[in-house]
Amino acid sequence: MDRILTEVTVTETRDLRFGEIFLVKGAYIEIYNTTGLNNCPLQLWDALDLEAIKTQFDAQAVQLNGPKFWMMDSQTLSFGETVSFGGLEARWAATLDAALVGKQSHGTAPYTVFTPKKTQKIVYAKGGAVYELVDPDGNSYVMQAHGKEFSMESLASLAERLTLPDGWEYRTRILTEDLVMDLGPDQTIYAVGDEFEQYYMRIPMAK
User: Fold this and answer.
1) Is the pTM of the predicted complex or chain greater than 0.70?
2) Which residues contact 47 (CB under 8 A, 6 or more apart)?
3) Range of the domain at 177
4) Where are the alpha helices (H) located in the chain, listed in sequence order?
């Protein structure tokens, strides 16, 4: 469907709680996100009725991602329509190929690269810490959000909890300049998740 997109800038997003609802519709998954509307109140999130949502939106399946906590310091997103999921408001944020989810009960298979379609400008501020996965080819994927089971302080030792494939590395580094990732639907975006459904976006190689 053709969507009217609205550009929204959200600041002070580091450690901001949000939730995502995935609507599986045929070959695609429509992703709705609470960022900029609310902080994903737990009483509404925990009360979500997946079967009712499935019926309401004529979806084959419904999956939840969250609550999660953003890692960047600010971001600008292009959102589509706002909908209510049992009183929890969220906006269309991205479309994902359903084949990438396959038989996983939630999200994509860990350490399997996928290519979401979205419009999002992400800024990680100079002086802040970033947490990255590095694949065997040297590509770095920066963590977008951490799960509720991990505090911000615990992320430096996250490697102890990960079962990394051969050739993969997890690392922490302090930025000496702003890291800006300007993502759009006209480019190929590469992303990957870990076994805790925390997602990382590939940093483009320097030209």
Assistant:
1) yes
2) 86, 87
3) 6-99+113-202
4) 42-45, 50-56
